Each structure stands twice: as C-alpha cells, then as structure tokens.
C-alpha cells in the first residue's frame, strides 16, 4: 500500500498576523512546517509527501525541504484560494501513484507516528478515517439573533476533528470530482457521497496553530516532550 501525504499550507494566516505565513513562523528554533514535515518524514508508514503552498512562498518552502533534507517530499506545488482547492491541487500532484492519501495540516507540527498508524488501521473499515478527540467543554446551540440557548448537546457524542484525515485515493478523488463547493474538511466531501467516515483517536497535543496563543501552547508541549509523540 503506497501512502502519500498531502500537506496544505497555502492559507494567508490572517488570524495569526506577522510578516510571513504561520507555517514559516519559528517554533523553538525550527519553522512550524519543518516540524510538521520532519514528523511525517520520520513515520515509516508514509512513502511520499506533497506540500501545497501559496504561490508567493513556494521558494521558502522548497528551502525548508532542502535545509532539513526531507527526502520524502516529492513536490512543492501551488495551492488555490481555498483549502479545498489546495487539496485538489495536491491530488493532481499525487496522481495515480498512491493507494492511500493522508491529508494533514501544515500547522499541526506535533502529529505522531502512533496517530498516523491508528489512522491507517482505521481507514480499512470504510475507506475514510479522521483523527479526533473527545470534546471537553459543554457545548450549547445558541440562536444568533437573540443570543438565547436553544439546546445543550450531549458531550459524549461530540468529537473535535483533527488531521490527519486518511482516505483511499480513488474515494477522495471521487469526492472532489462530485462536489465543487467548499467544505470545512475533506471528510465532509466524502460524507456527501454517503460514505461512512471512521473516527480514530488523535491527541490533545496534536493542536492546530491558528493564533499566536496556539504557538505558546505548542511551545509548552515541546518543552515536555523530546519528540512529537503523543
């Protein structure tokens, strides 16, 4: 089974601020994207990687690949205006070379090999599997106009979805071919086909860096672990 990872990084990162995209921001001496790619490079189950980058920053990502000798990265390609468009470009770059495609956010640098292995085991169930953790807070549905609580959801049924999200390549290609509209994640496109998506255990350390506060959390996690393992 040939496993390819698509790593979308083409967003502008407006909520993060700064003079460069958040994947290129420094996290304890290395760019965030370098830590993400090093974690994927170290996973024996991943054969090859495609990075999808904003057109203005492709050279910077290529420099990261060279500097950290990331031999599994086969291409850095230009993304689109949305995440959906960027992953579609990644699928084009992968072509027919993969049996299984793993999509992982470029700004989740603390992913572990054990999470990925759980995902590869889970994908066999339906052809689609997503990392997730159980929701800790109480979640309420609120009416936007009035601010009144409409419902308190059963926390035992709620999961916060992460990446990696892992799919049989043909299934993910079919999902993208069938749906041109944006979606919050790749699994949502697969769900629209009527295909069941299997949830597997992620990790609370497997955070997505979206704001400067998230960077502080990632730094705290790194201070307590010697490698990106959960």
Layout: helices, strands, pairs:
Blueprint (H helix, E strand, L loop, with lengths): L2 E6 L17 E2 L2 E2 H11 L5 E6 L4 H10 L5 E6 L4 H12 L5 E4 L9 H10 L5 E7 L5 E3 L6 E4 L6 E10 H10 L7 H6 L6 E4 L10 H13 L6
Parallel strand pairs: 1-4, 1-6, 4-5, 7-11
Antiparallel strand pairs: 2-3, 6-10, 7-10, 8-9
Give an overview of the whole structure.
It is a single chain. This protein is an alpha/beta fold. The protein has a single domain, classed as Alpha-Beta Complex (Spore Coat Polysaccharide Biosynthesis Protein SpsA, Chain A). It has seven helices and eleven strands. The protein is globular, with a radius of gyration of 17 Å. The two termini are 25 Å apart.
Entry keywords:
230 residues, alpha/beta, Spore Coat Polysaccharide Biosynthesis Protein SpsA, Chain A, seven-stranded mixed sheet, two-stranded antiparallel sheet, 7 helices, 11 strands, 31% helix, 23% strand
